[in-house]
Write a structure and sequence with these properties.
The chain is of the alpha/beta class. The protein has two domains: 109 residues, 3-Layer(aba) Sandwich (D-Maltodextrin-Binding Protein, domain 2), CATH 3.40.190.10; 99 residues, D-Maltodextrin-Binding Protein, domain 2 (3-Layer(aba) Sandwich). Helices cover 44% and strands 20% of the residues. It is built from ten helices and ten strands. A five-stranded mixed sheet has the order 2-1-3-10-4. The protein is elongated, with a radius of gyration of 27 Å. The termini are far apart.
């Protein structure tokens, strides 16, 4: 082959290679663009839930997004009262799941949730916990009046569901006045759990469902606490949502079989009716 033909062949090969590489890069760019477009098309849903739901709802988030790849869940945990006030203030919340019915009722009375979306999805039990070892031998809530008990962990009695239920029980047992000066108060039930875990409180009050999230071998449950009002958790779509259909999908997931299974794994009871 003469030099002219060799040059032509080399040029032809180079052109083929360039065209092939261009096709590869263009295909890669197309795929990247499609991925970006898919991400942009996803709908974000913000779920405000009481802190007691943290572990269960994080598990639900993974399961739900696996089933609904076009929806991104954003979880917002806190005490029920603060979350309610965020919604009242116009925060962009799509789904509300407080740890009691009172805060939901307050929103419903103002038309801030869709009543037809509302369901009771879980329940729990109030318990008293102490640091591992129970050095003061506390076995009932009356023991909190012992002089050796200096600190009692209790979440906010106005905004937190656990705090409100506990205060109600202590009042009914005639103990509230004698323990008020011993209270170590936090915003949420998770704060109370940590105080007892660390030994910073001699006793504390949490939901039974919080116990499983405690650090191993740090706490003991000494007694359940009687409550005059059943501990029921409702969930509903916030009426200001821009994504009512997608929000309802999450409510349906929580109250469906997969949601119930996750809740039971974390010790929640499931109401017999919606």
């Amino acid at each position: 082959m003469d030099k002219k033909n060799q040059t032509l062949l080399t040029v032809a090969i180079a052109i083929v290679i360039i065209v092939a590489l261009a096709a590869i890069f263009m295909g890669s760019d197309d795929e990247s663009l499609q991925d970006q477009q898919q991400t942009a098309q996803n709908t974000s849903i913000t779920v405000s839930a009481s802190a007691v739901m943290t572990e269960a709802f994080i598990d639900m988030e993974k399961e739900f997004e696996a089933d609904n790849s076009e929806i991104d869940l954003i979880m917002n945990f806190g005490n029920a009262g603060s979350l309610r006030m965020q919604i009242e203030g116009g925060a962009p919340i799509d789904v509300f799941a407080p740890a009691d019915v009172i805060h939901m009722d307050m929103l419903a009375s103002k038309g801030l949730v869709y009543n037809d979306s509302r369901k009771n999805f879980a329940g729990s039990t109030l318990v008293m916990i102490v640091p591992k070892g129970n050095v003061f031998n506390l076995t009932r809530i009356e023991d909190l009046s012992k002089p050796e008990v200096k600190k009692i962990a209790l979440s906010d009695t106005e905004a937190s569901t656990v705090g409100r239920y506990t205060k109600q029980s202590l009042i009914e047992e005639g103990l509230w006045n004698s323990v008020q000066n011993k209270l170590l108060t936090g915003d949420t039930v998770k704060n109370s759990l940590v105080y007892v875990e660390r030994g910073e409180a001699d006793a504390g009050f949490v939901f039974m469902t919080d116990v499983s999230s405690a650090q191993p071998d740090t706490i003991e449950v000494v007694t359940s606490v009687p409550v005059s009002t059943p501990i029921i958790y409702p969930i509903a779509v916030v009426s200001a949502t821009q994504h009512a259909e997608e929000s309802q999908l999450f409510v349906d997931f929580v109250t469906g079989e997969k949601g119930k299974s996750i809740l039971e794994q974390y010790g929640f009871s499931i109401p017999q009716t919606g």
